[in-house]
Write a structure and sequence with these properties.
The structure is a homopentamer.
Chain A lengths: L11 E5 L2 H4 L12 H10 L4 E5 H7 L6 E4 L19 H6 L2 E8 L6 H17 L3 E6 L12 H14 L3 E4 L5 H11 L3 E5 L7 H13 L4 E4 L1 H4 L4 H13 L4 H5 L2
Parallel strand pairs in A: 1-2, 1-8, 2-3, 3-4, 4-5, 5-6, 6-7, 7-8
Helix pairs in contact in A: 6-7, 8-10
Chain lengths: ~260, ~260, ~260, ~260, ~260
């Protein structure tokens, strides 16, 4: 039901830009605070999709890149067990031109059942409208000591598969071997590595991406490591070569 | 989708009068306790909009000034993490003649997700009926030490943009520079400074407004600083000159 | 939209009989425990309306007096922050012959938002069916030290006005001056004094009512001070003279 | 609206068999664990109605005796303030052949408002489908010291009347005088004594029933005192003579 | 209403594979982590049904074996009183080809009423679409010391019957005698023993299954004891002989 629109040679690099709600403008600078900049970057950087909340999609989406509409979200100002409820209806997302909806499930949260239920409804509505349903699965709550622990990441991947996600966005475990297990656990649900906070160097970040790809990932959803980069266009090109052209980190960096 | 109706030369001064529910009649005196007085002031003072709860709109709205219907609210008698749920349906607001709905989101509250979800639904209904959706974003809850801190105000502004607000009402940070960042964070969502409690002097208040405008605000939503003023008509004129005519505080006060 | 049906010469005395649910039969004696007695009293005592829960309306209402259907309620057996949810739909109330719905909002309760939202929905449905919506506003919860404090009663009145009530039922503050402020705060929403527990003497009670009327109240909703009275018919007559004929306490008592 | 179908000479003996959910099979023995046994007993014992949860009705109800479908319920494994939510829709109950729905309200529970609201909806749907609505009113929660205290039982009866129940099922207070008050408090809602746990002797039980009848009860809803009896058919006959034939305990036992 | 499709000679062996959500991939190895393997095993092992969450059904179900769609679920990462809400609508389950829906009720949990209510709705929808409703009844919460205690297992069985389940999945009590009581308590609802964690030896496991069958069970729902087995095909054959052919453990193992 359509992750294909987000893929090139079976791979995809998605530009994530929902941090304004999740973290606040503290993630931004004078340039990337402007969604226009990111929208343009998505096109010029040849990203396979761009991730927006409804407000950005309504005011900035220019249809040059397929749209993934993030339909839930929360601020990081709230304490306690995390929960994010639906802000955008699937129908509205579709009217805004989205080809997929994104939804975060905080697996392990005391409110997990609320989100599993809501995602369940959203997934069915999305499929009815021929849209893909992508699950951001973030293990959280009392029981989660380390959300990049291999068994936790694999569990996250599996939750997405079981709940009917067409693709899951999960954190990288840190090494190829353990991430392979997560990819296997996701089955036919495509795996997108979560870009995460800005890595110390470009090479560090590219090695993580390469590791995820080598483990079988379809690609990544990346935000801060691109638009917080001093040269976002260059990082976009590097990711193209790494993910779509399937080059090694060294090959990608060469030239 | 229609903030234009509330603007003149791209600017707007909205007369807020939802304090009866939010704070109680303690904000009022013998004159301004009467919504008729405020309704008349809205017209004679050439305000660009008036903000009412449904009860006032039903009984007092005379259509001389565009109506913003505040569709949620709460008393200040309730303790604990704040939440305000929908009291007026969007359809009812439209039938009462509203050109926009207003909704308060207590970002950071333990009930934030309830309000983000509800605003999401209301925003879609409003747009369907060609009404604007204005978000009052008030950061609250355990994690919020100071709700006028620059990063908190900027976050509030961004929450509104991301959630699909056509305009946000936020507190002033206290200086132009930091408020610029909040305005930038709001992107294409228009920014209205929250008038707040009565300032010590008119000049004090006008300087705040001037600061917000210089930072890029579209205008302000003001209640107590007008109708608690000893001469509301005069303050209305001053705001016209400052906001719509774009004069300096000194120019506005002159004559 | 119809408080007129409950008024005579612009005034009204409503016979309240929802105490069976709110307090239990402990309020009753062998005679007034029977709703038939109260229904008959409503007619012979020329009350302007009678307040029933749905069960009483279904089994006892004889259409001789306009019906106000109380659509929410709770027992006094429950501890903690008060909440009363809707028991009777507006449509059902209308089918039972009601000309108005009554709804209690415990302003200040931790569950206030639940009731404001529910009242909001009920009010719209009532108006659509050409029924009035009357709000019983009872401030409760941690923050409420004394629910007859002038500023609290005025706040209650205002909550009703803002939320769209056609009339509010509030407690008497104890003196004319402070109740005037409450009446003013209620604006165009009509004010009915809450009869409250049985007063020590008839004269005591009549003085309270007179005070409320002098402060601008439309009338009162009275239960125990009538049907717990040794001579309910006489008290009904006294209230007629005081409220409808607008006599002084002394004049009313004379003859 | 139809309690008549459950009455004979204005009286009724209802066979209750919802204990499987409420208490578990611990209430049963090899014989009465089988709903077929109880269904047959209902017919041969000439009961005026049988009380089943939906599962029993679907699989065992043979239409020989009018059916009361218990539409909510809970296990006794749950601790804390009691709540039982709707398990069977009124429409489904009707399709299963029910002539009445039964619903338990734990008056005084922290969740009372949930149940009063749900019963309110169910009552209206039942009446629309020409079914009776019977309320099991069980006072529970912190504030309830003794749920057979006269004032508590009378309150329970009144809650049922006010909420629109056609009949209430309440516990016996222990003596005729105090139960009279409960019956009076129930007004036109018919009163069925709750059979309760197995009494020490048949005579003990019959004296309670006689007391309830003498106080004005319409009959009783009895489970364990019949099907836990060593001779259920005999107890059924005794109840017929006591309740329907209106004999004294001594007359009933004679023969 | 159709448990027949899952039975052969009145017996059934269902292949459970919802552990990916309930326990995570920690239950899996390189082979059985792949739903394709399990789907193939279901067919070649002649299972009478396969249990999938919606995600697996959508991506792997090949219609060779009747499908039971598990419509609720949760991860084991969440602490506190358990609750699992609906993830898949009954309509969607039907569209995916399911002949039955499965739903877990944590009887005794503080959230029991939520699940009883939800199952109630699902059961009615399933029956309307001619699908069976199977209840996984797992007693949990403060009050449950040991969830295989005979009285607890019997209670679980009865909850399923009362709530309208066509079949219940319950744990084995450990001996034939006590399990007989559970089967009796389930009445006409068919009883499937829950396979549970991998038993120390095949014979151990077969003895449990034999015990359940001897007590009157219709069969079992088994996952880990098959697909964690070193020779799943062999275990499938053994279960066929034991359950469908009704052989003794010794007879089944012979050959």
């Amino acid at each position: 039901m359509g992750m294909e629109v987000f893929l090139h040679k079976g791979r995809g690099v998605l530009l994530a830009y929902d941090q304004g709600l999740e973290h606040g403008p503290t993630d931004f600078d004078e340039r990337n605070v402007d969604p226009t900049f990111v929208m343009r970057l998505a096109a010029t950087g040849r990203f396979n999709g761009v991730v927006f909340q409804k407000g950005l999609a309504e005011k900035y989406y220019d249809k040059q890149v397929p749209l993934i509409l993030k339909v839930n979200g929360k601020t990081n100002l709230v304490k306690g067990e995390p929960v994010a409820r639906q802000i955008c209806s699937v129908k509205y997302a579709s009217a805004l031109g989205a080809k997929a909806v994104g939804y975060t499930i905080y697996a392990g949260s005391a409110h997990e059942s609320v989100m599993l239920e809501e995602f369940g409804r959203i997934q069915e509505q999305a499929h009815e409208l021929k849209m893909a349903a992508i699950a951001w699965i973030y293990p959280r709550g009392e029981a989660i000591k380390k959300d990049t622990a291999p068994e936790i990441v694999a569990y996250a991947a599996r939750v997405g598969l079981e709940a009917g996600a067409d693709a899951v966005k999960i954190k990288y475990t840190g090494d190829v071997e353990s991430f392979k297990w997560a990819v296997k656990s996701a089955g036919k649900a495509k795996v997108f590595m979560s870009g995460g906070p800005k890595a110390p160097t470009d090479t560090d970040f590219l090695r993580q991406v390469r590791g995820a790809l080598d483990a079988g990932a379809t690609g990544l959803a990346v935000g801060r490591n691109v638009w917080q980069n001093s040269d976002p266009a260059k990082m976009a090109r590097l990711l193209q070569r790494l993910v779509i052209e399937n080059l090694s980190v060294e090959e990608a960096l060469r030239d």
